Amino acid sequence: MRMPTNSESAPSGAKITLATADLLALDAQAVHKSIEIVSRATPEDMTKPTPCRAWTLYGLLAHMATQHYGFAAASRGEADHAAWRLRWLGDDPVGAYREAAEHVLKAFAADGVLDRTFPMVEFEAEVPGHQAVSFHIVDYVVHSWDVARTLGIPVEFEPELVEISHEVIAIAPPGEARVVPGAPFGPVVPWSGGSRLDQLLAFLGRS
Questions:
Q1: pLDDT digits (tens, 9 = 90+) for 63-108
Q2: Helix axes 57-75 and 23-38, enclosed angle (nearest 10)
Q3: pTM score, two decimals?
């Protein structure tokens, strides 16, 4: 996920705040959910198209694994460009993804991680730890849905995890920023009814 800029109101109704949420626990929920869903993929699934434009499932998992290693390196204060380079997952992409997920969970479990500054070299910015972890949460809620959608299976998240994701995406502006090359999210999709997860995904350009 590319780091969004500029302030814009996201869908309303969130009942928890970044100041009161247990971000590390919520992040672990999202990552464990991603492991659960990815573990259902078969070798035959790897060439399937995903909701992420131009990515097969293998490509999406490579991106997700790479982001885990990048965030983990940043959590240790490492401005390591190599950690953010797209990874080859080999012949066992599910196992490689699980290893990457466990790596970031271990990194985020270190004492004081939320109080650190993350050098997010992919974004050419230094980000407070709590904010970086909140970005990671949204990444793995949305990408868990992407994988589930690709596999044709349902996915559900705890309400608190969905609500905190709504608050985080308040900084992701709609409009022209969504249509430029390399934009992190697509244009907002009209939404009416459905779940709060549906509303979150629509705001981020998923149908």
A1: 999 999 999 999 999 999 999 999 999 999 999 999 999 999 999 9
A2: 150
A3: 0.86
Given CA atoms 27, 115, 105, 170 in this order, what sign does their dihedral have?
Answer: positive
